[in-house]
Each structure stands twice: as C-alpha cells, then as structure tokens.
Amino acid sequence: GAAGSGRMDSRGSRVPQLTLRLRERTLTARADIPYAALDSAARGTMDVRLSSAIRRSDLAALLTGYVTPDDLAVLPDDGMTLGVRVTGNMAHLAIEEGTLAVPRCLTLTVGGSGTDLMDDARRTLDLRLEANVADGTRLTRLAGMEGTVSVPSASRLKGRLTARATAYAADLMLSAAGGSMTTRLKADTQTEQYAATATARALPLGRLLPGSGLSPFSGSVKVAGRGFDPTALASRLMAEADIERLAVGQAVLDGIQIKAESAGGKARADFSADNAFAKGRGSLTASWGRLSEATLTADIDEVRLSDLMATKDTLGIGMTATM
Q1: pTM for the whole thing?
Q2: How many CA atoms lie within 13 A of 122 on its CB side?
Q3: Is the pLDDT confidence value at 286 over 70?
Q4: What is the rounded CA–CA span in Å between residue 269 and residue 219?
Q5: What's the pLDDT band for 246 if we cut at 50, 70, 90?
Q6: Long-range contacts of 207-214 (CB under 8 A, 24+ apart)
Q7: CA atoms within 13 Å, Cβ hemisphere of 307
C-alpha cells in the first residue's frame, strides 16, 4: 500500500513523505520543489530524495501486463536498490547521492554539482560517474544487447564531465578483460573548437564485439579542429591515428600510421604501413566545392596476398600507382 501526502500549487510541489510498501520491500520519497528554484533567478531551494530496494517479485507485481516473466528473469532475486538526493537551485545544484545497484550485475554511482546553470557565460559543472560490472553476461541480457555487444565481467568505467561557460570536457577510463582505453574530449559550443584523444592498451575489441574477428587493439587517435561541419570552407581539422597492434581475422594491421588535415575545402591524408602483411606508404588528396576531385597515390613495397586470402601458397605483390 501507499501512505503520504502532497501539495501542488502555483508556487511549487511538496511531498513531505511518501511511502510505498511493496510485497517485500519499501520505497520512500520526499520532494520539496519550489518553482522559483528552477528559473534563472534561483530564489528558492529544492530538496528531492528517493530511496528504494525492490526485489524481482515486487517488480513483477508492479509491471504485470507490461513485461513478460522472461524480461524479469535476468534480474537477480535480490532485485535492485536506488538512492537519489538532489538539492539546491539553478544557481547552485548538487547531486549529493545518485546510486543504482543490481546485485551480482552492475553498480552505478553519479555525483557532482553545478552553478549558474541557466547562464551561458557563467555556467560551471562538475559531474563524476563510475560503473562497475560484476556479471557482463547478465548485463547484456538485461540491456537486450545479446549477440550484438558483449560486456566482459569485472569491467569498470570511470568518467568526469566538466563545463565552464560554453566549454565542455569529458574524461573517460574503461578497463575490461585486461585491457584499457582512456579518452578525453573537449568542445566549445560557441567557438566550435574541439579536440579528442583516445589511447588503447590491449583493448579486447573481439570480446566487446562478438563475431567481429578483431584482436585486442593497442594504439591512439587524436583529432582537433574548428567547425562542427568539417565540409564547410571555414572549418579546420587535423587528425592522427597510430595502430600499434590490431588484427582482423588473418590480416595483421600492426604498424599503421595515418595523418590527415583539411581546411578551405581541401584535405590530405598520408598513410604508411610496416607489418608482416604489408609494407608501403601513400597519400590521398581531395577537394570539394563547385567541383569535387580526389587523387590517391600509393607506393606499396609488398602485400602478402597469401595471408589476406588465407592460402597455403606464398603470394606477394608490390606496386606504385596513382589514381
């Protein structure tokens, strides 16, 4: 059953205490939200709290007619717990607690604060998140991603999102199956300047993407530029990719470097490879506008076609070409 009281009028909404008793668990909520706390003047202060621990049997009773028993079977019998507390207003908002825990499956925590959220010139934001996966198979079933994406058990994701005025930044760290990837993103919505870097060490792409035939990946990617539409004449873009270790099936793609840049409707990319499968270098130039054209130049010392086609006979070629 449910017990509690609430009030809503032109000034705001207030629920001093709401208790929802389920078959085996209880959900409690409390909210005090003056509407003045949601506008730019920030003349009020809100306080929202939610706490619950729901078993699978409770969810089955609540969602009867909406989901099938198979949909709920992926949840542990212990169900899940949720805790939320948000206080403040648009001048200073704090997420004091944000937790979601599914036993033997996933734990997610979020916290942080922001100031002057309605003011583009003064806005600040600092949010942190962490996700720990205990059972990746259960999580992929719960998310309906079976056969498409696989999350290794004992994976961990940590992140931080910050903002100052119109400049945003995000830092992410993923650890999975003995591999890792760190990512940093920056963008300014006013100037349209952006930058991104990603570095991977033995990232298990084949585990994350079942059936792809990809080996663990080590390498890095860097992108920086200005203009969110890279085809615009005023946009600028520079990118680098360094593939240290990667294989797709029998094809070994180690030792590949790519550097590219574009500006004023013209682009150029230089690439090189030095591995057991191929050795060579080349470039691709392109321009667009009223007339679009592209030129590919390649100087290939050797390509081991026998490895590419997985044949027993040795077969390799070399060539120089311009197209």
Answers
A1: 0.82
A2: 9
A3: yes
A4: 18
A5: very high
A6: 207/150, 207/152, 207/176, 207/177, 208/149, 208/150, 208/151, 208/152, 208/176, 209/149, 209/150, 210/147, 210/148, 210/149, 210/150, 212/248, 213/248, 213/249, 214/246, 214/247, 214/248
A7: 16
